[in-house]
Design goal:
- The protein is built from four helices and 29 strands.
- By secondary structure, the protein is mainly β.
- It has two domains: 306 residues, Methylamine Dehydrogenase, Chain H; 114 residues, Orthogonal Bundle (Cytochrome Bc1 Complex, Chain D, domain 2), CATH 1.10.760.10.
- It has a five-stranded antiparallel sheet with strand order 1-2-29-28-27, with no helix packed on it. A four-stranded antiparallel sheet has the order 3-4-5-6, with no helix packed on it.
- The radius of gyration is 23 Å and the shape is globular.
Length: 433
């Protein structure tokens, strides 16, 4: 029997008297879905805030756990090899046996990865402001670092092993070309606001920006072809299906806009979420299905032809978004600072951090089965009122430097005390209360 946490649930939606289409949910992650990629053979890769990658081939997922922080981008274009990048600054190459090799490392979050499958050339974009181009050489990889943007690089597209495009929070798109000795770049777009997403084809470039700008320009001349900007911001995801000419854009208000690039018109404008953003988009190999991820721990897929017939599926109703008036101050602190990474219940979960069940009196680094940072294995820290207070007073980077725990500080002593009071009750078994 397939456990519920690893089940891809397929529901049937009937449109018209004889036509059935599938609406699919991929359930099992322990955090929001940050990235999506579909292999040419149809397998789906999901990247999550829970530090893991899921590979979905049929009903049962395969979990790839190798990152030390949230995974935000995956690329399955060179299947069976899979590439992932995350908040731990690393680009990993995953092999069919589940093993991983670090390909390169940035000085900041990895925000995008593109592949030339035939040459196995890999380009990665980082919040360090750099692009890295990596290719295999004998038994290792060679990497070149491209510098030119003035802020985070958010998107990268390889055209060949000597040509690529990059977009950045500095509001520009750059065209890079390599001669015999070095890379040179020129600015092809100056948008004015940060650019989050970019699609590059042989003929045009589409991009989405922080201010909601959604524009298409001619790749050679830079002249605008079409402006699809609506009163929604920011644009957070884009996907392109060349064979069917479909361009999809997802925004911070939960909509997926579908564009026909042969006629340059909006064909559908679908509300995918009840609350929160669309962070990730990908088409199925035949272009008939669109996959999306957002605040839920679930990836969703809809039949493109019947998008307008569906109600929003991504609920986005995370515990930390509950009405503050319904919670005590201690619970509010937990929901805002801890709940996305930590469960209060016993047993394993796919959340990014270990369960806090019965945490008081427990030695740090001792929850069975959780892959702790080396600094916590064998640590002499005992979790109690004093150590938990110090953790949030100093911040994890000072109290336990080198751990995977993201930076969280609660500056007010009263707020820390209320959190501890809440945890004393919430982390006990019912029989202990």
């Amino acid at each position: 029997m397939i456990p519920l946490r690893g089940l891809a649930v397929i529901l049937t939606f009937v449109a018209g008297p004889a036509l059935a289409q599938e609406f699919t949910t991929l359930k099992g992650h322990g955090g929001p879905i940050m990235g999506l990629s579909v292999a040419p053979g149809g397998q789906v890769a999901t990247a999550s805030f829970d530090n893991s990658v899921g590979v979905w081939d049929g009903l049962a997922p395969t979990w790839l756990d190798g990152h030390d922080a949230a995974v935000v981008v995956v690329n399955f274009d060179n299947a069976p090899l899979l590439y992932s990048g995350g908040d731990d600054f690393r680009v990993l190459e995953w092999h069919p046996d589940g093993s991983a090799k670090e390909i390169t490392r940035h000085l900041g979050k990895v925000s995008d990865i593109d592949i030339l499958p035939a040459e196995t050339v890999i380009a990665s974009a980082g919040w360090d402001g750099f692009i890295q181009v990596t290719w295999p050489h004998m038994d290792h990889h060679i990497t070149e670092t491209l510098r030119g943007h003035q802020s985070n690089v958010t998107s990268v597209e390889l055209i060949s092993d000597t040509q690529l495009y990059s977009a950045s929070s500095d509001g520009t798109i750059r065209h890079w070309q390599r001669d015999d000795t070095q890379w040179q770049s020129r600015v092809v777009v100056k948008h004015g606001f940060g650019i989050n997403e970019m699609i590059v084809t042989d003929d045009w470039i589409a991009y989405g920006a922080v201010d909601g700008g959604t524009r298409v320009i001619d790749r050679e001349s830079g002249q605008q072809i079409k402006d699809f900007t609506l009163d929604r911001r920011p644009i957070l995801a884009m996907a392109w299906h060349g064979a069917t000419g479909q361009l999809a854009a997802g925004d911070g208000q939960g909509y997926i806009m579908m564009i026909d690039t042969t006629s340059w018109r909006i064909t559908r404008d679908f509300r995918a979420t009840r609350r929160g953003p669309v962070w990730a988009l990908a088409f199925s190999p035949d272009g008939k299905t669109i996959y999306a991820g957002g605040l839920d721990d679930v990836a969703y897929a809809w039949p493109v032809a019947y998008l307008d017939e569906f109600d929003p599926a991504i609920d986005g109703n995370r515990s930390f978004l509950r009405d503050a008036a319904t919670m005590s101050n201690g619970e509010r602190q937990f929901m805002r600072k801890c709940s996305i990474c930590h469960a209060l219940t016993p047993g394993p979960s796919r959340k990014a951090g270990p369960t806090l069940h019965r945490v008081f009196g427990r030695a740090a680094g001792t929850v069975p089965g959780y892959p702790y940072s080396p600094i916590l294995v064998g640590s002499d820290i005992i979790w109690n009122e004093t150590s938990i207070d110090a953790l949030f007073d100093e911040g994890p980077d000072h109290f336990i430097p080198g751990s995977k725990m993201p930076m969280q500080v609660i500056r007010e002593a009263g707020d820390r005390a209320d959190l501890i009071t809440f945890l004393k009750t919430a982390t006990k078994q019912e029989a202990d209360q």
